[in-house]
Amino acid sequence: MVGRKFTLPKMAIGIALTLLTLMMFIPVINIFARAFSNPDKVHELTGLGVIPKGFSLINFQVVLSNPIVGQAIGNSLFITIVGTCFSLFFTTITAYVLTRKNLVGKTPIMIFLIIIMIFEPGYVQEYFVMKDLHLLDSLWSMVMYRMINVFYLVIMMRFIEDIPESLMEAARIDGAGHMRVFVRIVLPLSRIPLLTIGMFYAIAKWNEFFKSSIFLSSPNKTVLQVLLRQFVVERDTSTLVGISDLLKNSSIAQLDFNSLKAATIVVAMVPILMLYPIILKYYTSGVMEGGVKE
């Protein structure tokens, strides 16, 4: 057996990738370390330290004790879950329709979609569209906002085109219509692209804050990312922790501001990070495994 040959270029690439990984990973660990550090010892955590100084959950208690934060988390989860499901369904069914060979006007439709993808509408136009639809200050505005991403639509079309036509023809011979073919054949064989594109949609929905601040004006309709920006970027402490009962305790009132910011970032980051291990485990299975037997 011939061993692997380590060359200087391979070693240089390995070192560069390792350093790049550390550059992205260490700041994240540092945020977790600050969030879980004891308020009395957090000042000892200097630079990009990755080991918490002591251990305390008081920062999370202060952040999560605010009812506005709980409401914002619920709003963000609703927009992310419902919006991702809607976007996946309409993206997939649109991709299925556009991949049918007998579709009339397919070329003009694709040209129109490409133009939309290149020349995106402005903020003013999107605002007035939501206003005319009576969706302003409604969570459904963020669910409906950019429900179909044209780039993801094109990716889904490429996957559906790879599904053997013999499967669909066999279903049609048995009397299946387009909807049954879509549900019984296309969706099961598109599990991997559905998970991949669904993850992209979920991340975009969860992280959207600018349009949320425009479309949603009521305090009970705000989302977690807007609160995060107000507290971390604008340093608006009254919005996040000003009404917390825990702050009435004089010892807790001396909490480190950077630790509170770190705890807020962790609260906003953990839910979306939990998607990765759930989705990645499905990548090992073949998308067409057992689909066609010649």
Describe what you observe in this structure.
It is a multi-pass membrane protein. Residues 73-278 form the ABC transmembrane type-1 domain. This protein has 294 residues and is mostly helical. It contains 15 helices and no strands. The chain starts with 7 loop residues before the first helix and ends in a 14-residue tail after the last helix. 65% of the residues lie in helices and 0% in strands. The longest helix is centred in the first third of the chain and has 32 residues, at 67-98. The protein is globular, with a radius of gyration of 24 Å. α2 packs across α14 (257-273) and α12 runs antiparallel to α14. The protein has helices spanning 8-36, 58-64, 67-98, 106-118, 123-132, 139-144, 150-161, 165-173, 178-189, 191-207, 210-215, 224-233, 237-241, 257-273, 275-280.
What are the key terms here?
294 residues, mainly alpha, 0% strand, disordered C terminus
Question: How many separate helices?
Answer: 15
- The oligomeric state is single chain
Report the end-to-end length measured between terminal Cα atoms: 36 Å
Low-confidence stretches: 285-294
Helix content: 55-70%
Instruction: Give the biggest sheet.
Output: none
Structural class: mainly alpha
Report strand %: under 5%
Total number of beta strands: 0
